[in-house]
Design goal:
The complex is a heterodimer of chains A (about 170) and B (about 120). Helices cover about 40% and strands about 25% of the residues of chain A. Chain A is built from 6 helices and 8 strands; from the N terminus they run αβββαβαβαβαββα. An 8-stranded mixed beta sheet of chain A has the order 1-8-7-4-5-6-2-3. The chains are: A alpha+beta (about 170), B mainly alpha (about 120).
C-alpha cells in the first residue's frame, strides 16, 4: 500500500514536470511585447524638427482627435517601406501624425523627408532615444495609436502594412 | 598657517565626499542595469549590451538616479513602460506567485520527508 502511494506521488510529480517542460517547448522564449495595453501618453518636452524650439506634450496632443506617433529614422530601411502608407494615412482628416526622429543625423533626416514626402504634422527630435523609452518603444520603426482620451490604445512594432492601415482607419472611423 | 591647514582639510573632506557620492551612484547604476533585461538582445542585460535600446535605457537610468529616484521607483518606471519582463527579478503577482512559492514548498516538503526519515531511523 505504502509503495503504491509512493509510486502514485512519483507519477504525479513526473507528469507535472512533463506538462511544464512540454508547455515550455511549445511557447517561444522570445519576448513578444504587449500591443493592446491601454496606457496614458507620457508627459515630455521635446525639440521640434523644423524650429529650434522645445515643445510640451500637452501642446502637441491638444486637439480632440486621434493621433499617430511614428518612430522613424533615415538610416532605418523598413521606415522607407512603410513611408507611403504613412503618406496615405496623413490624408485622413480625423488623424494627425507625429513623427519621432530617432537617433538620427539631422541632414539625412531632412533629405529623407524631402525625398519621400512629409506625412507628419509635427516632427520631434529624439537624439538619444530617451523619448522613445518614455513611449515604451524598442527601436525603429514603431507606431502608436492615440485616442481622443489621450491614451495609447495600440502599438505596432516594426513597419506598418496595408492591413494595419485598414485596422487604424476602422478604429478612427 | 593654521587657517591654511583648515582650508586644506576642508578641501580634502569635501572633494572626498563628492567622489564618494559619485561612486555610490555608479554602483547603484550598475546594480540596476544588471537587473534590467535588454529586450531586443538574446540573453543579455542592459549592462552587458551595446545596442541602441540598451544605451537609451542606460541614459534614462542615469537621469533618474541624478533626479534622486530610488531603485524601486526606477524599476517601477521601467515596468510601467515595458512590463514585468524587463526586470530580471520578477515582482510577486498572480502570474509569478508559483515561481516564488514553489522553491519554498519544495524546501518544506524536503524538510518534512527528512524529518520523517530521521524519526523512522530513531
Amino acid at each position: 500500500m505504502k509503495n503504491k502511494f509512493k509510486l502514485f506521488i512519483i507519477v504525479i510529480f513526473l507528469s507535472f514536470c512533463f506538462v511544464i517542460f512540454y508547455k515550455g517547448l511549445n511557447t517561444p522564449n522570445n519576448y513578444t511585447p504587449k500591443v493592446n495595453e491601454k496606457k496614458n501618453i507620457p508627459t515630455f518636452k521635446a525639440k521640434d524638427f523644423n524650429s529650434d524650439s522645445h515643445i510640451n506634450s500637452d501642446e502637441i496632443f491638444k486637439e480632440n482627435i486621434f493621433y499617430i506617433v511614428n518612430i522613424w529614422a533615415s538610416w532605418c530601411v523598413p521606415c522607407r517601406t512603410e513611408h507611403p502608407l504613412l503618406m496615405q494615412l496623413s490624408k485622413n482628416q480625423s488623424i494627425k501624425l507625429i513623427g519621432l526622429n530617432y537617433r538620427d543625423n539631422f541632414i539625412n533626416a531632412k533629405k529623407f523627408i524631402n525625398d519621400l514626402g512629409n506625412p507628419y504634422s509635427r516632427i520631434l527630435i529624439d537624439k538619444d532615444g530617451t523619448l522613445g523609452v518614455e513611449f515604451g518603444a524598442y527601436g525603429v520603426p514603431e507606431t502608436f495609436l492615440i485616442d481622443k482620451n489621450k491614451d495609447i490604445i495600440k502599438k505596432f512594432v516594426g513597419p506598418i502594412n496595408q492591413e494595419i492601415v485598414s485596422e487604424i482607419e476602422l478604429i478612427i472611423k | 598657517m593654521k587657517i591654511l591647514k583648515i582650508f586644506i582639510i576642508l578641501f580634502l573632506v569635501t572633494s572626498f565626499s563628492e567622489l564618494k557620492s559619485d561612486e555610490i551612484n555608479d554602483i547603484l547604476k550598475n546594480k540596476i542595469l544588471k537587473n534590467i533585461r535588454c529586450l531586443i538582445c538574446q540573453g543579455q542585460s542592459v549592462y552587458d549590451s551595446e545596442s541602441e535600446f540598451a544605451s537609451s535605457i542606460k541614459l534614462i537610468v542615469d537621469r533618474k538616479i541624478n533626479e534622486g529616484l530610488k531603485e524601486d521607483l526606477i524599476y517601477e518606471f521601467l515596468r510601467e513602460k515595458y512590463g514585468d519582463w524587463v526586470i530580471y527579478e520578477p515582482k510577486i503577482n498572480k502570474n509569478t506567485y508559483i515561481l516564488w512559492l514553489l522553491p519554498l514548498l519544495l524546501f518544506l516538503l524536503g524538510g518534512a520527508i527528512m524529518r520523517k526519515k530521521l524519526n523512522f531511523t530513531d
